[in-house]
Automatic annotation (TrEMBL):
The lineage of its organism: Bacteria, Pseudomonadati, Pseudomonadota, Gammaproteobacteria, Methylococcales. Residues 353-456 are annotated as: Lon-protease-like. One of its GO terms (biological process) is recombinational repair. GO terms for cellular component: cytosol. This is DNA repair protein RadA. Signal peptide: none annotated. A motif (RadA KNRFG motif) lies at residues 254-258. The middle region has homology to RecA with ATPase motifs including the RadA KNRFG motif, while the C-terminus is homologous to Lon protease. Residues 68-217 form the RecA family profile domain. HAMAP family: RadA_bact (MF_01498). The keyword Zinc-finger applies. Belongs to the RecA family. RadA subfamily. Pfam families: AAA_25, ChlI, Zn_ribbon_LapB. PROSITE patterns: RECA_2. It comes from Methylobacter tundripaludum (strain ATCC BAA-1195 / DSM 17260 / SV96).
Length: 456
């Protein structure tokens, strides 16, 4: 009597399970993503020990060892910054990005620096041949005599090789092509990606091996595979490009060993990815002749300030329904700020179309840019040019008050280093000690900020 094959219906996008096939996934809303997969008999046992790879005894929280995790430095400071200060031994890092973003190039450069210091590394390629990787290393002028290479897609075979060579750093390129013998489905399926990542994570925790997994992205720039993949790994970073195709931005979306939202900046050239030591200068490449609607603000990304330009355009509505379009920040927040501007600033824009953009492709995730956005809208509406050496930051409340933001002193110091002469900021962020070369105007209401704008 043949053994009955167990099957399940799983969404390729979010990993939701269903008893039968359906056209649309009710969990993520995507269409035609529910696939039938075969379940292996050992699949349950492979997850029974947990992703940590071992069972632990019950302990009091006060008895847990608080020793600092050992880190390995890659020699690329922007890469180490995003990881939280270096590569934690035994950690699992998932790096995603669009095709051609430079994921493999960045990892190859990092492990070349690490291997040159005597740390053993192994690069496992499941997509490219070893010759292709060797040609890339030669083109990037990287030392290749200490990097161990392996072309393999079987997770069990990879772990057998790891037992033999015992590397400290392992690169898996990519996790979507890996497969485990315990799961009877095609490589790239939800169950294969989940089980392969779980198998490798267990090995990393047991043997204190740091693993980098390269992940593919879908057409909407989210990581391909089950959502469980993000929960398994310790750190998840995304490598993307800015509006200028020469530059790359590495962002930490999840990090158990550092801050989330940390950014690393790189420039792509013929010799690989180069660090951008001064990212603010990259985003402040403004024309010599200032124009209305352009204003500079200081964001706080991760652990450092970042000066960016915000542009606003106010034009007469050509049709019956005025448009409100925001690129780089929340469109609903733009609508809220326009309502506050109308109620507490006396400036009405209900009949105008308004477009706002954060230059350079940066995504604003904090509220410190509120004042700059409103000032940009007023500047465009009145055709008022803001001088290049003036910047604004501050959060705007619904009652028109200007609220303070975190790390105000560090933002001011960074702007002063870049040659800015005048700042309009929340009154609560005004430092007790003046900053040389910087004229600071503290405001507590939106009307005060608009008065200063009219005097510029």
């Amino acid at each position: 009597m043949s053994k009955k094959i167990k099957t399940a219906f799983v969404c390729d996008q979010c990993g939701a399970d269903y008893p039968r096939w359906g056209g649309q996934c009710t969990s993520c809303g995507e269409w035609n993503t529910i696939k039938e997969v075969r379940l292996g008999g050992a699949e349950r046992n492979s997850r029974s020990a947990g992703y940590a790879g071992s069972r632990s005894e019950v302990k009091l929280l006060s008895d847990v060892n608080l020793s600092q995790a050992e880190r390995i430095f890659s020699g690329i400071s922007e890469f180490d910054r995003v990881l939280g200060g270096g590569i934690v031994c035994g950690s699992v890092v998932l790096i995603g990005g669009a095709p051609g973003a430079g994921k493999s190039t960045l990892l190859l450069q990092a492990i070349a620096n690490i291997a040159a210091r005597g740390v053993s590394v192994l690069y496992v390629s499941g997509e490219e041949s070893l010759q292709q990787i060797a040609e890339r290393a030669h083109r990037l002028k990287l030392p290749a005599d200490k990097i161990m290479m392996l072309a393999e897609t079987s997770v069990q075979r990879i772990c057998d090789v790891l037992d033999e060579v015992k590397p400290q750093i392992l690169v898996i390129d990519s996790i979507q092509v890996m497969h485990t013998q315990d799961t009877e489905s095609a490589p790239g399926s939800v169950s294969q990606v989940r089980e392969s990542a779980s198998y490798l994570t267990q090995y990393a925790k047991k043997h204190d091996v740091s693993i980098f997994m390269v992940g593919h992205v879908t057409k909407d720039q989210s990581l391909a595979g089950p959502m469980t993949l993000s929960h398994i790994v310790d750190t998840q970073v995304m490598l993307g490009s800015t509006d200028d195709a020469r530059f790359r931005v590495l962002r930490a979306d999840k990090n158990r060993f550092g801050s989330v939202g940390e950014l690393g900046f790189f420039a792509m050239d013929s010799t690989g990815l180069k660090e951008v030591k001064n990212p603010s200068a990259m985003f402040l490449n403004r024309p010599d002749k200032p124009s209305s609607g352009s204003v500079v603000t200081v964001l706080w990304e991760g652990t450092r300030p970042l000066l960016v330009e915000i542009q606003a355009l106010v034009t007469e509505c050509q049709y019956g329904n005025p448009r409100r379009l925001a690129v780089g920040f929340d469109q609903n927040r733009l609508a809220m700020l326009l309502a506050v501007l109308s109620r507490h600033g006396g400036i009405f824009t209900a009949n105008d179309e308004i477009y706002a953009n954060v230059v350079g492709g940066i995504k604003v995730t904090e509220t410190s840019s509120d004042l700059a956005i409103v000032v940009g809208v007023v500047s465009s509406l009145r055709d008022k040019v803001i001088p290049h050496d003036v910047f604004f930051f501050g959060e705007i409340g619904l009652s028109g008050e200007i609220r303070p933001v975190a790390n105000g002193h560090a933002r001011l110091n960074d702007a002063a280093k870049h040659g800015f002469k005048k700042a309009v900021i929340p009154k609560a962020n005004v430092p007790k000690k003046s900053i040389e070369g910087l004229e600071i105007h503290g405001v507590s209401t939106l009307s005060e900020a608009l008065d200063i704008l009219s005097e510029l």
